[in-house]
Write a structure and sequence with these properties.
Blueprint lengths: L1 E5 L7 H11 L5 E5 L17 E4 L6 H12 L5 E4 L4 E3 L4 H5 L4 E3 L2 E5 L6 H10 L12 E5 L4 E4 H10 L1 H4 L5 H17 L17 H5 L6 E3 L6
Parallel strand pairs: 1-2, 1-4, 2-3
Antiparallel strand pairs: 4-9, 5-10, 6-9, 7-8
């Protein structure tokens, strides 16, 4: 199953995203979780698509909420490919889906945990609270999961779900969404799948110009300037 959040805007490439998935994975179910779009009419774009489902009015928590709600609704899928609604697939991802690895990031980047007085750190504290996972101390370096976009197997999704951390990811703003990249990187590392070693494209910061010029191997990223 492929899944992504959609905050629809007039220049949204969401149909291109879906078409790119089906070009390389023609039989895949695709779940689009609307994230409080002002315009809901985009569902009509998929009226003739047999494997595409658009879910409305179930997600108040943006990007991480979309993944959580999908896993609640479809808890028994063998794998989930979490994307963005502005990312187009350029080639099949089947080798990553078929791999024994439980988690593969599309790309990674190096980062540093924020200081305690930052809202980003306080959000991450709320997310990690009461779970088995550990939030590193401020100023600790770590590897983040770009997007966050990843292939995750059901077995690992269940670990995240059972821990309560997916439910805790109640994003209400763009900075919270961005912490999702950090959180999934930390979670994957603590489960033995550090994105540094389990990824498709490598270090996205070193390939930023390649991404902007559409020269990555596996995906095209379009920037929409949303908040």
């Amino acid at each position: 199953m492929f899944v992504f959040s959609c905050k629809y805007v007039p220049n949204s490439p969401v149909k291109e995203t879906v078409d790119s998935i089906l070009k390389h994975h023609p039989n895949e179910k695709i779940v689009i979780v609307d994230s409080q779009s002002d315009d809901h009419d985009y569902y009509k774009l998929f009226s003739d698509y047999d494997t595409v489902e658009v879910l409305y009015d179930i997600n108040k928590h943006r990007v991480p909420g979309a993944f959580y709600q999908t896993c609640k609704r479809y808890p028994d899928e063998p794998y989930y490919v979490n994307l963005q609604d502005c990312v187009l697939i350029k080639k099949p991802l089947q080798k990553f889906i078929d791999s024994e690895n439980e988690f593969v990031s599309f790309a990674y980047f190096n980062d540093v945990i924020h200081n305690e007085d930052r809202q980003e750190y306080q959000y991450m504290q709320r997310v990690f609270k009461g779970t088995k996972y550990i939030l590193p101390n401020p100023r600790t370096t770590f590897i983040a999961c770009f997007g966050p976009m990843y292939v995750i197997k059901n077995s690992l999704m269940k670990k995240f779900m059972d821990s309560g951390i997916l439910e805790n990811m109640k994003s209400t703003c763009k900075p919270d969404d961005e912490m999702g990249e950090r959180i999934f990187g930390l979670l994957a590392e603590q489960e033995g799948y550090n994105p540094l070693h389990f990824n498709m494209e490598g270090d996205i910061m070193s390939k930023w110009n390649s991404m902007l010029s559409n020269n990555l191997e596996y995906f095209t990223k379009k920037f929409l300037g949303r908040t």
